[in-house]
Amino acid sequence: MSESMPTRTLADAGGVDHGAVARRSRTWGWWFVAEHRIRAMRSYVFSWVGLGIGEPFLYIVGLGFGLGMLVDANQGEQGVDGVPYIVFVAPALALAAAMQTAAQENTYGVFGGFKWFPMFFSMGGTPISAAHIVLGFQLSVLVRVLLPLTAFAVVMIVLQLGTVGGALVLIGIGLLLATAFGFAVMSWVSTQTDDRGQLSFIERFVVVPLTLFSGTYFPLETLPLLLQWIGWISPLWHAVELGRTALYGAAIEPMMLLVHVGYLVAIAVVCCLLSIRTFAKRLDK
Amino acid sequence: MIEATGLRKQYGDFTAVDGIDFAIEPGEAFGFLGPNGAGKSTTMRMIAATSTRSAGDLRVLGFDPETHGPEVRAQLGIVPQADQLDEELRVVDNLIVYGRYFGLPLDYVKRRSEELLEFAQLTEKRTARVDGLSGGMKRRLTIARGLINAPKAMLLDEPTTGLDPQARHVLWDRLFRLKEEGTTLVLTTHYMDEAEQLCDRLVVIDKGTIVAEGSPAALIREYSTREVLEVRFGSARNAQAAEAMAGIGQRIEVLPDRVLVYDHDGEAAMSAVHERGLSPITSLVRRSSLEDVFLRLTGRSLIE
């Protein structure tokens, strides 16, 4: 070996304190998972920004102005829920987009992470735990959801729909909804080991019906009582109720405020715990 | 540094690992040699604290993997059977994100990634996407990834399975270098040549149990003769010819495609075969290998 060669070896590269590694990973593992996923997002960011900004404009302008003219002409001065239709529908559109994005990421990201590009297993070989993977993954989904939510808020502010503060609070409500719905989807998808086409059920039979029957495009009360229960169990409806209060001060009982937030938090917590259990089981082969 | 006693893994009614004992010393290259399904990968996962044992005792680098998974994994470099690289990321980013899972600072991880790319002979590919790499390159990248945390031991599960001969030799060369530097290597393989090349010591494992243990040379000395004569008479006639050869050499083994005659002097055995008026289609004298050891111990070939 010549003198210029380093004396330290590749394996013993020096300076790595394995005890500290384990301690840091026990505390910060969730962040490393999110960091990995955010790094991977960089290659998609341009298409997302395009879609993220384009979509809200199309929806709000198309539905709000187009359909809104028809609705407002029929409703006269009173509008819908006391405001022009475009103001009524805007928060619901933003929240529905947040729910849809969270559902997609948790469907294909979670299934793929076990199956198509088994990232979860390679993460399992590092000091981090199953809980870190679950939490970090959801955090990265929230970063992803932030994009459409922000775009919707900007459109609302530009078009002066509701208050600026309300539009900003709406982003927070959207993140809460995405967390609840994201964990719910994850807790089911993580139990699925084979792709037999059932993954698309979430979009077709859960996301779309919930969007249609959660008081999104029209007040829930206009539905026959027989169908209103869909709204009551729908995380989207609870979020939309909060969103309308935030954006234009729709009347709400303080008790219901607690119910809406509590419902979303409860779903998030329960489904998060279920997901952690499933992940831990699948990673321990 | 790794010690197991009575280690067992049960999946329902199926026993994958059936009470094995072994001890791996620092700086040693230790192998688990056995056919597919022998329980090698399961044993590796238990060592790596990614699979909970069903019974027995296991200590890995000072910890019990069941209660101190993070502490164990922090000290290990893992090269799983499937590479499990992030195909969406660039080559160098795969190393960086993996290093971050160990909580290593970003600038350290970046610096170390460049060193490891050089070691893996992938510097030119550093900004390529992983899905465009060849099998051998992906394998080398996985080994580089496993080294990112300066591990005290590397666990390599079937490091060269699925690679073409040239890619295998490049990989062996890299593993040799790690071995020379004193890195503890623990590997599984069903290739006897790989075990002979890389392992200081190995256990032969079959159906979840250890059937022999020792250095490749010692195992061959103990369970086989110095040389082996391989003769082929055509698949229909092998068994009949073997009967006619009875008494030649120390032991005769009949395989579907050939007859093996174990003797310290293969040429002498060959002459004896010809003296009995037998004329094989092909014949070959070679040194005994671990394949012969496995055949002797289990009555089966390693690769079926």
TrEMBL record, chain A:
Origin superkingdom: Bacteria
GO cellular component, one term: ATP-binding cassette (ABC) transporter complex
GO aspect biological process, one term: response to antibiotic
Transmembrane portions of the chain: 45-71, 83-103, 115-135, 142-161, 167-189, 257-276
ABC transmembrane type-2 domain mapped to chain residues: 47-282
Membrane topology: Multi-pass membrane protein
Locations listed in the record: Cell membrane; Membrane
PROSITE patterns, alphabetized: ABC_TM2 (PS51012)
Listed Pfam families: ABC2_membrane (PF01061)
One GO MF term: ABC-type transporter activity
Keyword tags: Antibiotic resistance, Cell membrane, Membrane, Transmembrane, Transmembrane helix, Transport
Alphabetized PANTHER family for the sequence: NODULATION PROTEIN J
Sequence similarity: Belongs to the ABC-2 integral membrane protein family.
Protein name per its UniProtKB record: Transport permease protein
Originating species: Agrococcus pavilionensis RW1
The organism's taxonomic lineage, starting at the top: Bacteria, Bacillati, Actinomycetota, Actinomycetes, Micrococcales
TrEMBL record, chain B:
Topological category with respect to the lipid bilayer: Peripheral membrane protein
Broad class of where this protein is predominantly found: membrane
Subcellular locations according to the entry: Cell membrane
Keywords: Antibiotic resistance, ATP-binding, Cell membrane, Membrane, Nucleotide-binding, Translocase, Transport
Nucleotide-binding is among the record's keywords: yes
Family: Belongs to the ABC transporter superfamily.
GO molecular function, one term: ATP binding
Swiss-Prot/TrEMBL GO biological process terms: response to antibiotic
Cellular component GO terms, alphabetical: plasma membrane
Domain ABC transporter: residue ranges: 2-232
UniProt protein name: ABC transporter
Keyword ATP-binding attached: yes
One Pfam family linked to the record: ABC_tran
